[in-house]
Amino acid sequence: MFTPVIRPAVPKLETISAKTRSWEKAEAKVQEIRDAWDPVKQKMRELEELKQAQLAEELMIEIAVDRWLNSIRADIDNKYTQKKYETTARKLRSWAQSKNFTLLSEITADAIDEWKTHWKDEAPKPRQQLSAQFFPFREQTPRGIHR
Asked: What is the C-alpha to C-alpha distance for residues 108 and 58, in angstroms, rounded to an integer?
């Protein structure tokens, strides 16, 4: 089945084969061709491709925590200190999972502040010091600014 198509850049009528006998499939092919020329849909495709590329570059929390712990283990020989970091990492993973955070970029400074409010009085200062090493941006963000 042949479908007449007018290309925007070329005002003459051109016939392109849809390579099908089905009228519905031919109409779908025509719509696909028209959508390829639509500047709004082109921009939407570009934005979707950009979003997919950014997601591909994102770091998952699990991977980031594992890398951080491996770095700590390489730098610190004391097993007790390593255990403290592992405990903080376990609590961080648990909290992130409860908030449905999967990507590191989803954890904002405000979210960290909210996490700190749930710490018990068991040892907030050491945990704050340990978590500050995982979230260095937390200390760099001034208060009162949307984070």
From this structure: 14
